[in-house]
Predict the 3D structure of the following.
Amino acid sequence: MRLTLTPDSWVVPVLADRIASDDDLVEVTVEHIARVCASDGASNADPSLFLLDSGYPAARITYLLRHRAIPADVLVRLATSQTMWTRPEHRRAHPLGGRPRRHGFRLALREPDLPADASISGPVDIYGTVTVRAWRQVHPKLTRSSRGFEDQPTPPIVEGTVLLARVQHLRPSRRAGDLALWYSGTRHDLLTLVMTYLTRFDIEHYFRHLKTTAHAPDFHPRQPDTLTTWLRLHTYAYLHLFCARAHLTHHRLPWEPATTTTPTPGQTRRQVSPALRNAWHPPGHPKPGHPGPGRPAGKRRTRRTRYPVIRRNALHKGK
């Protein structure tokens, strides 16, 4: 799904694509990134930045983008249980020979014991003071069993920048911890990267609207193409609600907190629906007064075709 960051720090959907059961999630993602870069006119001097969730393998996507010369940088969330490695130290060759070292010091994201290459602190909206630490030119340890590198005798070294951000204020129900990010580029500063990724959580508002308001889990089409059409129509409708929210008066419900900000697209839909019901519209075609012919005699109902449920964790396994 392609989403666009608007000037007032909201993320709205622009395009939705369906992934088939036999598709590779990483290949589809890289092709989608290449298509977006071509339409936006991205170049090596000014690459586009893409924000991805923790379900995407950061090393493999970075390797494919660099191998195919796609002008794009990715900012991927990492699990704090992962381990990275630095570049090996330059040592004199052993008299007896041997293979040179490929990995240096171990960097555990949960409890990093290596000094950071850079560190910065600054205020970020409601989160208070945000402290960001960065380790540059680090890489994960890939093996032959890693998905996407089975045909290579020696797995490549994919380097990037690892960021660990800790915020000052969190909800009482959230446990304080570090936000681990993988960045494949070099042109953005650390605090801007963290602030940019925090805006990605607005995407969850769209998925919540899709599940609760549009009742997406209750929609079971007969054909997969119907689901693609339905998703794209709902994406465009959500975008229209986003554009109309500045032209409506926000009437909050009694249990909603008082706020001076503009309403969300879901709250906008709540105000648009009564206006559409009260608006005049021409009458439709008259309904027939007699029942339909029904199923012909002797013809039985065919069994419905079932399609497997696509889950992101089942599409790719490995680092």
